[in-house]
Structure prediction request, 263 residues.
Amino acid sequence: MSSLSLAVRDSSTMLRRNLLHARRYPSLTLNLLLTPIMLLLLFVYIFGDVMSAGLGGGGADRSEYIAYLVPGLLLMTIGSTTIGTAVSVSNDMTEGIIARFRTMAIHRGSVIIGHVIGSVLQSVMSVVLVGAVGVAIGFRSTDATALEWIAAFGLLTLFALALTWIAVGMGMVSPNAEAASNNAMPLIFLPLISSTFVPVEAMPGWFQPIAEYQPFTPAIETLRGLLLGTEIGNNGWLAVAWCLGLAALGYFWSKAVFNRDPK
Prediction:
């Protein structure tokens, strides 16, 4: 069997393993998924009229704020889901299964690849679910073309891949599952200080650079542009650059830690 065939076979096996774990222990995924859904319902039905009045500069229209909010929460959903990846990887590293895999005649990278592909699939399914909730409460994207929808889906998938590699690295360097969960908290915290809930220009001047120069804000603005027809500007290139940079960082970080001789 060629090296490529071996890698594909073993990666598929590890992918099935991780999907089975997610199916048998759904509580972690559900808990992380409930965060963006609860925030969506909270901001729409509790703060929606006030926030929409502030955004529009006129009367309250909750539908405008729903349209503004949903793209940001779709990306926040990805950040929430990948925390489960960090916890799962940490469990594998600390419970001895990785040491067992090292003694077996399997492709070394298949363990990591299985985690990454499984996490990306879970992130995409979570995004679809949160998007369905958004549509159910009034989100509409009637002006987006088929090409723009494909581009939006591609951006979400690329963003999920980038955050997954970062989460894998976090899980590998964490001494236990609790530490992995804590280390991955920036993946939920960063969307809260981005343009998810309010425009960057509405924030205090000293705070605007914090919200602007981070990966979530350009990705959110690009997604809004694709789905709602707002101006994208340089955000599209910035979002892709952030995704590629984070993916490369997470990949080489995870690979270096995984290949390190166990102590």
